[in-house]
Amino acid sequence: MCALFWGENKLRAFTILRGIAAPLDEANIDTNQICPSRFNKMVMGPGYERVLFHDRRFNIDGTEKPGYILNNEPYRRAQILVAGRNFGCGSSRETAVTALLGFGIRAVISPEFADIFFNNALKNGLLPVTLDETIVAELQQRLRDAPTMQVKIDLESRTVALDGESPTSFEIEDLMREKLLLGLDDIALTDRFAAQLPAFEAAYYRQSPWLPADDAH
Question: Which of 90, 155, 81, 82 is nearest to 117 (CA)?
Answer without folding.
Answer: 90
